[in-house]
Amino acid sequence: MQRISFAEMHCSIAQSLERVGEWWTLLIVRDIHLGLHRFDDIAENLGISRNLLTRRLETLVAGGIVERRAYQKRPPRHEYHLTEAGLELVPVLMALMAWGDKWVTPAGGPPVRLVHHECGAEFTPRVCCSECGKPATTADVTALPGPGAASGPGTRVLARRSGLAPEGS
Amino acid sequence: MQRISFAEMHCSIAQSLERVGEWWTLLIVRDIHLGLHRFDDIAENLGISRNLLTRRLETLVAGGIVERRAYQKRPPRHEYHLTEAGLELVPVLMALMAWGDKWVTPAGGPPVRLVHHECGAEFTPRVCCSECGKPATTADVTALPGPGAASGPGTRVLARRSGLAPEGS
Q1: Does A5 lie at the interface with B, CB-CB under 8 angstroms?
Q2: Which residues have a Cβ under 8 Å from the Cβ of B50 and sit 6 or more positions away?
Q3: For the segment B37-87, what is each residue's pLDDT rounded down to a tens digit?
Q4: Pick from B12, B36, B128: which is nearest to A104 by CB?
Q5: In this complex, which of B89, B99, B126 lies closest to A89 when CB atoms are compared?
Q6: What pLDDT was estimated at residue A166?
Q7: How many CB atoms lie within 10 A of CB B129?
Q8: What does the alpha-carbon distance between residue A6 and residue A153 come to, in Å, rounded to a whole number?
Q9: Does the CA dihedral B161-B144-B155-A46 come out positive or negative?
């Protein structure tokens, strides 16, 4: 499969995909979040090859999303845990799960229910505004160039819109 | 790159990745959302090969996320627009963008600012509870097996936790 790095793209979605866009990566984060911390358990739950899981875990550790913790010295054994960045990625997964529950519902209905401790209710994750708390939908939101906008790949369209880059660039 | 279908996995994250997990797919959704509706414009903005873009757009159309609309008859020409499912995916992208802004900030800072029409403020997308409206974080949420939970790949861990599947399954 063709693979081009998104590293040069001035876009935080592209930068995020650079870290978590690989096949399996988000499912590994899901499994660790659900309490699977050992290599064998993750491999078995996902039905993923050991080689592939090794590579994906290395990427996640290098990307600061997962950390290895020794739980035994002789022989050395490690567990995998989410870092703070990894923990903050989980709500994004919950939002993706809600989208999947609605638009690509697995047979039998949603496989997972979520309960919110704060209010005690079963809930649907929803993307909201940090300022007013109301839902943020495409009809409700305008994207404008930010401080890191550039005319490089990925943000030309926004840069043009604001006059940062000429039409022909 | 190894590619195993997630189609059999009882998990709405896996099912979502089956539709939108391919390289570039989410960036194509982003570009269409930002107003690029023509093949050449998307190809140029992303710096993606025409072959690859053709395949990804076909996947997105087949998955019900993007639709082709004729805008000219002779010769036939089409534009690409987001379907309702595609539009509802955009807030998930906004949440991923916010994660990227914080954890993998592109040089110069966040490339995009978002303004919420509802309140008029620049905001950070946040994943919240549909019932109480407060943020949903890993510390705040418990995942339980839903109606579609099964002992198949991907949800064994949750099924076990609730006694739906034996430890050895």
Answers
A1: no
A2: B39, B43
A3: 999 999 988 888 899 899 999 989 999 999 999 998 889 899 999 999 999
A4: B12
A5: B99
A6: 44
A7: 24
A8: 9
A9: negative
ipTM reported for the complex, 2 dp? 0.88
Q: Which residues on B lie below 8 Å from A55 (Cβ)?
A: none
Q: Is A3 helix (H, G, I), strand (E, B) or coil?
A: coil
Say if A99 is an interface residue toward chain B (CB within 8 Å). yes
Q: Which of B80, B84, B92, B81 is nearest to B26 (CA)?
A: B92
Question: pTM to 2 decimals?
Answer: 0.88
Tell me which of A24, A90, A101, A127 to substitute to probe the interface with B (most B C-beta atoms closer than 10 Å).
A127
Phi and psi angles of residue A34, each rounded to the nearest 5 degrees, phi first: -80, 0
Where residue A165 falls among pLDDT bands split at 50, 70, 90? very low
Residues 6 or more apart from B26 whose CB is under 8 A from it? A13, A17, A21, B20, B93, B96
Give strand pairing partners of B69. B79
Is A54 near chain B, with CB under 8 Å? no
Degrees (nearest 5) of the Cα angle B12, A17, A52? 75
Distance between CA atoms of B57 and B5, rounded to whole angstroms? 19
Rg of chain B taking only CA atoms, in angstroms: 19
Q: Name, in order, each residue with C-beta under 8 angstroms of A49's C-beta and a sequence gap of 6 or more.
A: A43, B2
CA distance A130 to A138: 16
Sign of CA dihedral A117, A123, A127, A133: negative
Question: Cα separation of A130 and B49, whole Å?
Answer: 37
Whole-angstrom Cα distance, residue A78 to residue B18?
Answer: 30
Reading the block at residue A122, the tokens are 């079963």
Report the C-alpha gap between B72 and A59 in whole angstroms: 46
Q: How far is residue A87's CA from residue A18's CA, in Å, rounded to a whole number?
A: 18
Among partner residues A34, A133, A154, which is closest to B158 by beta-carbon distance? A34
